[in-house]
Amino acid sequence: MEGDIVQMGAYIGAGLACMGMGGSAIGVGNVAGNFLSGALRNPSAAAGQTATLFIGIAFAEALGIFSFLVALLLMFAV
Amino acid sequence: MATEANSDEGGLVFHPMDQFIVQPLFGDGPVGMFTITNSTLWMALSVIAIIALMVLGTSGRSTIPGRIQSICELAYGFIYKMVEDVAGKDAVGFFPYVMTLFMFIVFANFLGLLPAAFTPTSHIAVTAVLALLVFVTVTVVGFVKHGLGFLGLFWVSSAPLPLRPVLALIEVISYFVRPVSHSIRLMGNMMAGHAVIKVFAAFAPMILLSTGLGLVVTPLSVIAIAAIYGLEILVAFIQAYVFTILTCVYLKDALHPAH
């Protein structure tokens, strides 16, 4: 086992950064779940709101992807 | 890092990130500004595929569309309706740009799913250029159409007056984060999916190393590859859709900046 403490810290940090993906998973689940419950109440209005659904998912997902990016930076750039 | 993983005993057979290496197609010199690489090849292939589909599809132009013509009409109508619905009726002038973006991204994503293919959209260099072009276009269009009134986008007039400077700061920051999240979303999704497939692919030949463990690990990883591949087909389309629809949302902001 060789290597240095900086590399160890980078790897641990990359693993910790992955916890952010859980947050974005909760966010995306919230958006999709609320869309579904609304869509089941008023199915006729649901078709017109799918674009809004995807925009909402995209915004929620962006922050999870930032944490993925931090993990990648720690793995390959630091 | 790739060499470390390869030299480890019992480590992965190949590194999951190896598929993203940009290599020159001819010879093995350094990659310069104008070197023809595998990235260039797959971008060119997707452009050729788009041209083939659209030219073949519209060459017949029959009233009752054939199969290829139906696909073209479907794609055209889908994007046209999206621009009209999301960005507004006065944004249809930007329809060719949005359609080009969508077709390029969707073809690059789908061609990248072929085995041994290279995905240009999994590189930040490609997606950042696409996103920056959208950002610059939107900003220029906003200022040309509305002059300094475009800055009203950052001044939330429906909020109480003391809150407005704070909101303006947040709006400005979120405006400049747009190209970052726009490009990283596409690149991150493409890269993560392909890397996961390759991680499972590296576990698949476990049965050659140890029969006992391999009997469990090998079938599981083959099933996982199939499942994730199915998910990736979905993601390849949805990410192209999301990129396009966000372009439309940004265009709407530029054309109608008032809150």
Automatic annotation (TrEMBL), chain A:
GO cellular component annotations, sorted alphabetically?
plasma membrane; proton-transporting ATP synthase complex; proton-transporting two-sector ATPase complex, proton-transporting domain
How does this chain sit within the bilayer?
A: Multi-pass membrane protein
The record ties this protein, via CDD domains, to: ATP-synt_Fo_c_ATP5G3
Where in the numbering of this chain does the V-ATPase proteolipid subunit C-like domain appear?
12-74
Give the molecular function GO annotations. hydrolase activity; lipid binding; proton-transporting ATP synthase activity, rotational mechanism
Subcellular location per UniProt equals: Cell membrane; Membrane
The site (Reversibly protonated during proton transport) lies at: 61
The UniProt keyword set, sorted, is:
ATP synthesis, Cell membrane, CF(0), Hydrogen ion transport, Hydrolase, Ion transport, Lipid-binding, Membrane, Transmembrane, Transmembrane helix, Transport
Instruction: Give the primary localization class.
Output: membrane
The record lists the membrane-crossing segments as 12-33, 53-77
Fetch the Pfam families from UniProt.
Answer: ATP-synt_C (PF00137)
- The question of whether Hydrolase is a record keyword is answered with yes
Establish whether keyword Hydrolase is in the entry: yes
Q: What does this protein do?
A: F(1)F(0) ATP synthase produces ATP from ADP in the presence of a proton or sodium gradient. F-type ATPases consist of two structural domains, F(1) containing the extramembraneous catalytic core and F(0) containing the membrane proton channel, linked together by a central stalk and a peripheral stalk. During catalysis, ATP synthesis in the catalytic domain of F(1) is coupled via a rotary mechanism of the central stalk subunits to proton translocation.
Q: Could you say which protein family the record assigns here?
A: Belongs to the ATPase C chain family.
HAMAP family hit by this protein: ATP_synth_c_bact
Q: What is this protein called?
A: ATP synthase subunit c
Lineage, highest ranks first: Bacteria, Pseudomonadati, Pseudomonadota, Alphaproteobacteria, Rhodobacterales
